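Journal club side-thread
Mid-discussion, someone asked how the predicted structure for our own chain would compare to the paper's figures. Pasting it here so we can look after the session.
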Amino acid sequence: MRRWCILTKVIGFLGGNHYDFISYVGHVLSEMNFQVLLVDYTPLQELMATVPEYVFQKVTEYRDLFYVGAPEITEIKQYMEEETYDFILIDFEYSSKGKEFFLCHSICFVTDMQRHHLEIVENLKIPSNIERFLVVKEESPIRKMSFYLRGMITEMKLQESNYFSCPWGERERKNQMRCQYQYDIPWERTSSSMKQIVWSLVRRWIQYQEKEEIGILHLPTEGMI
């Protein structure tokens, strides 16, 4: 039985190649007994590639999560109105033209440090009433990257507490491959830095205060990267 009663919350994820990150968020929410729908609007259906069998545009249940590829916007609205799911996590990649953003309560940008990717994220037009978060996968950072990121955060009018930096290397790349080739969500193999970021975001999205559940999920009790 669910311990919380909330209206359906829709979280949009923007950026490239982050199907593993969305899977981690969905996994944690599912472990907390939330009903979670993961929606794939990416051109290459990257998120759906983590599911062994599915029918395009039909909801598929796998690993206690629900998945659907490129549904009509009217379907998402219906799920929200009927409160079919507690959370709807939408992977837009860079494909949205903005018309779907109005469905979201929050937007989470997840990107690597390549400048052309950062520029796309920086130039996306997001309605000012939507809360925004930025997760940057840092691999071999150089000094000028820090200056660029600082200016980008200022330009986006992003709160400092909504910015997260995640070390990225061989371990994280292997975990991505496990998502698609082993159809697994390798949460136990995930770095403590990644777990900390996921937990910080989940806590914000559910206004979670109680700590007795944290040990069950093997999550840190406090702190952010």
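Post-session note: The longest helix spans residues 192-206.
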